[in-house]
Amino acid sequence: MSGPLAGLRVVEMAGLGPCPLAGQLLADLGAQVTVIDRKVWKADPTDIHARNKRFIALNLKRVDAVDVALDLIRKADVLIEGYRPGVMEKVGLGPDKCLLANPGLIFGRMTGWGQDGPRAQTAGHDINYLAISGALHAIGRDREPPIPPLNLAADYGGGAMFLLLGVLAALFERSASGKGQIVDAAMVDGVPAMMGLIHTFLARGMWNGSRESNLIDGGAPFYRCYETSDGKYIAVGALEPQFFAELIVKAGLPESHETDRMDPRNWRDRREEYAALFRQKTRDEWAEIFRDSDACVAPVLDWSEIEHEPHNAARGIFRRCNGVLQAAPAPRFSRTPANMPSSAAQNSGFREILDGCGYSSSQIDELLSSGAILG
Predict the structure, then answer these.
(1) What was the pLDDT predicted at 43?
(2) Crossing angle for the helix pair 267-278 and 241-251, to the nearest 10 degrees
(3) How far apart are the C-alpha atoms of 242 and 141, rounded to whole Å?
(4) Which of 59, 74, 90, 305 has its CA 20 to 30 A from that of 274?
(5) Residue 355 is a catalytic residue
(6) Which of the residues 125, 137, 355, 365 is marked catalytic?
(7) For the chain, where are the E strands, in sequence order?
(8) pLDDT reported for residue 307
(9) Going by C-beta distance under 8 Å and a sequence separation of 6 or more, which residues neighbour residue 101?
(10) What secondary structure letter does DSSP report for 94?
């Protein structure tokens, strides 16, 4: 494995959502990520979160399987899990037990609601965590229901990214103290932490409670998407005065709009005016007009187009692994480049994993026959 995290040993408890993404990103950057699963899965190249990982399936209802898991954790730097509070404790792998076995362990816990609080034991999804943070209230069309922004904002932004931030911060602290600790990463904490700009706007009286009526929620006519003559869309983001001035020139809008562009009283009428203008040409015609300009206008591409967009192609942003389109590792490093995507072969390397923990071939066979390891 190559990358800036080469040599970092991570145990990931198999699950859904942001924890597998966090493990994938660590593996992309060179960490050795070993997933403890509860089932044997057929290798699936479409499971992008499994790339660059290795897997072992354990029946954690058995004491000897829990012992195997603890042996893996003893040799790890990091453990990440995304279960409801109490599940790891129930199977005998709670933080107290793991940190006793490995005092330097960083125990990363990923949940939606957090480890405590009235909602901690209830189910939830990205849309629910966004709902109580205030973020969902701000997303969508005026006088229509809020629109969930896929699962990017809470699951992956407030969840996986804050789990990674917490784990890497704890690793840095361990370099001084030599001690491990528990990282409680909750989406209901992470989403508000990303909303500093919005809270600044609110404190300054620059944000109102209506959707599609603010500077960056689609209210401003110079920061929204418009339909083109072919039924496709163009994204306009000309926020700064100099970029808006170029939009005026390239699109053929009235120069007078420069003087009062920030007056919300004009926005509704101008959205209609701009919409009529952008419906006069195809998306690609507009893209050509704005090519290499600073007007901050870009075509809205569908899934079939992103791989071949010239900038994406030049940077190699998307790669194919076994024919499956996926993003290349990010970010990029000058001396320690990350691994290119490689599909995982689920459970095929469990002997190598256990051999690395000091298990003999006969011990592995015994665990297999007992049902502790699922082969």
Answers:
(1) 83
(2) 40
(3) 28
(4) 305
(5) no
(6) 125
(7) 9-13, 32-37, 53-57, 78-81, 106-111, 181-186, 223-227, 233-237, 297-299, 318-321, 324-327
(8) 96
(9) 70, 73, 74
(10) -
pLDDT band at 16 (very low <50, low <70, confident <90, very high): confident
| Per annotation, catalytic residue among 77, 155, 189, 217 | 155
Residues sharing a CB contact under 8 Å with residue 235, sequence separation 6 or more, in sequence order: 225, 297, 298, 299, 300
pLDDT at 68 over 60: yes
Residue partners of 122: CB distance under 8 A and separation at least 6: 113
Neighbours of 142 (CB within 10 A): 12
Q: How far, CA to CA in Å, does 177 sit from each of 103, 152, 172?
A: 11, 34, 9
Which CATH architecture best describes the domain 9-194+318-370? 3-Layer(aba) Sandwich (3.40)
| Whether 51 contacts 20, CB under 8 Å | no
Per the annotation, the verdict on 257 as an active-site residue is no
pLDDT, one tens digit per residue, over 178-234 is 999 999 999 999 999 999 999 999 999 999 989 999 999 999 999 999 999 999 999
Amino acid, single-letter form, for residue 345: A
Q: Which CATH architecture has domain 223-227+233-299?
A: 2-Layer Sandwich (3.30)
